[in-house]
Amino acid sequence: DDELQTDGNRSGHFQNGELGLAPTNEEVIRLIAAQLAAIGDQFDKEIQERVVNDLVQHFRNENLSREEITRHMSRAVGELIRSIPPDMEQEKAMLVLAMLLTKKILNTVPSLLQRVYNATLNYMNQQFHDYIVNMVSQTA
User: With 70 as the cut, is the pLDDT of residue 44 above it?
Assistant: First the structure.
């Protein structure tokens, strides 16, 4: 049920009342995913190992609450957004950076999958819900 799709081949939805997108054309979701992946490839070099390792340490800390983890993710994205070209839409860049951080953390420590997935889902729902819904509706 809580399946993490990172390749853009299947549309997903958030559960438990989170980011419930109306049924959409899967092709629209694939197009958006491809665009975000292309941006991610450009940003990939900007994410320093130090930022990833710092987040890994926070995710490993079982005493941190969901909200604290979300704050750490937000801080890391905020730190990285400074290196993004100013002509790029900031919300889109932040969304891509969050997804890239998630990917890099999971590549570093795969055992953190569930915790990282839940934190990323929470972060995206808090920060980008309206943006994602708007992006899907504009592309449809």
Answer: yes
